[in-house]
UniProtKB/TrEMBL annotation:
<comment type="similarity">
    <text>Belongs to the glycosyl hydrolase 17 family.</text>
</comment>
<keyword id="KW-0732">Signal</keyword>
<dbReference type="InterPro" id="IPR050732">
    <property type="entry name" value="Beta-glucan_modifiers"/>
</dbReference>
<feature type="transmembrane region" description="Helical">
    <location>
        <begin position="12"/>
        <end position="36"/>
    </location>
</feature>
<keyword id="KW-1003">Cell membrane</keyword>
<comment type="function">
    <text>Glucanases play a role in cell expansion during growth, in cell-cell fusion during mating, and in spore release during sporulation. This enzyme may be involved in beta-glucan degradation. Active on laminarin and lichenan.</text>
</comment>
<dbReference type="InterPro" id="IPR017853">
    <property type="entry name" value="GH"/>
</dbReference>
<keyword id="KW-0812">Transmembrane</keyword>
<keyword id="KW-0624">Polysaccharide degradation</keyword>
<keyword id="KW-1133">Transmembrane helix</keyword>
<keyword id="KW-0378">Hydrolase</keyword>
<keyword id="KW-0472">Membrane</keyword>
<keyword id="KW-0119">Carbohydrate metabolism</keyword>
<dbReference type="InterPro" id="IPR000490">
    <property type="entry name" value="Glyco_hydro_17"/>
</dbReference>
<keyword id="KW-0134">Cell wall</keyword>
<keyword id="KW-0964">Secreted</keyword>
<keyword id="KW-0325">Glycoprotein</keyword>
């Protein structure tokens, strides 16, 4: 349809310009508000300082095992902001974290959070190993992409697998081959990062110790059916006799890769899961281990609801913190010297 051009009066033109200016200002205001809000989210990643520290948190853990929420392949839902919030809390409890895999960007997000927050935390990265060879290929590729991006500054070591022997998903020689492969690739990049694997203390034989750069043994008094009143001494004695002594003979550093106490689930003979028993074990293990110079990773940072859904209530309730980062026990104040 043909439209006849209309002549616009100066007054109408001024009104039109005024309306346009108002619209532009409104749009600019909205954009400014968006970026300020967005900026506030990023301010959450600013370095921690005395005004943001939580007085209920004490750096009393040599290390802590950490699995971000929603980091189970192939359903990945972990987010940078959530992991940054986790690291804010965990960096006030320890200077070392141990991850369980490379999937869902968990290692990348963790290292990014450490970098953004400027906290003194090192991480044991893990290449998850199971009966599927493509798992190792995917995870090892992610490992080296992450190392190339972030460098070795915040990496304490690399674990190739966790409890792979216990699950009987891979032969000893296959795992040793993967460990050697990762070690050689690291050297090719010019990085002298120690490589190991974590498994049950009972599986940490002298043969295994000869294939790793340091021993990383899971030791759980709960699964030994130990009374909580005996658990701290049982753990330290077992570690000394079965891991420390043979590791020293092999010239290896010895670390407990998992030790903790659950708060819900079925009892294991004399071992009972409860908040009170978590507190008791913390009070009796933590300061004693620290005073003796024992190196350990507490199991674990957060409860893991996916384990409750997939396995048992017990498996999902080992967290020192709930999924919304609330402490389940009072932290003993015995900082690592």
């Amino acid at each position: 349809m043909n439209m006849m051009a209309r002549k616009i009066s100066p007054g109408a033109r001024n009104i039109s310009i005024g309306v346009a200016v108002v619209i532009v200002l409104a749009v600019m205001g909205g954009l400014l508000g968006y970026f300020l809000t967005r900026g506030n989210r990023f301010l959450d990643s600013s370095p921690l300082n005395s005004t943001t520290l939580d007085p209920s948190l004490h750096k009393s853990f040599w290390g802590i095992d950490y699995t971000p929420l929603n980091a189970q392949f192939p359903i990945c839902g972990s987010k940078q902001q959530d992991i940054t919030e986790d690291i804010k809390v965990l960096s006030q409890l320890t200077s070392r974290l141990r991850l369980y895999g490379m999937d869902c960007n968990q290692a990348e997000f963790t290292l990014q959070a450490i970098q953004d927050l400027k906290v003194d935390v090192k991480v044991v990265l893990t290449v998850w190993v199971d009966g599927n060879s493509t798992t190792y290929q995917r995870q090892s590729q992610d490992l080296f992409n992450t190392i190339k991006r972030f460098g070795p500054q915040h990496i304490y070591g690399i674990s190739v697998g966790n409890e792979a022997f216990f699950r009987k998903e891979i032969s000893h020689q296959e795992l040793y081959s993967h460990i050697s492969d990762v070690r050689q690739q690291l050297k090719g990049l010019g990085y002298n990062i120690p490589v190991t694997t974590s498994d049950l203390g009972s599986n940490y034989t002298p043969e295994l110790m000869n294939h790793v750069d340091f021993s990383l043994a899971n030791i759980h008094p709960y699964f030994a059916g130990t009374l909580v009143s005996d658990a701290a001494n049982w753990t330290l004695n077992y570690f000394q006799q079965n891991i420390v002594v043979p590791s020293k003979a092999a010239g290896r550093q010895a670390i407990i890769s998992e030790v903790g106490w659950p708060t819900k689930g079925d009892p294991e003979r004399g071992a009972v899961a409860s908040m009170a028993n978590l507190q008791y074990f913390l009070d009796n293990f933590l300061c004693q281990a620290n005073s003796q110079g024992i190196e350990y990773f507490w199991f674990e940072a957060l409860d893991e609801p996916w384990k409750t859904q997939q396995f048992t209530v017990l498996e999902g309730n080992w967290g020192l913190l709930t999924t919304d980062r609330k402490l389940k026990a009072k932290i003993p104040n015995c900082p690592i010297s």
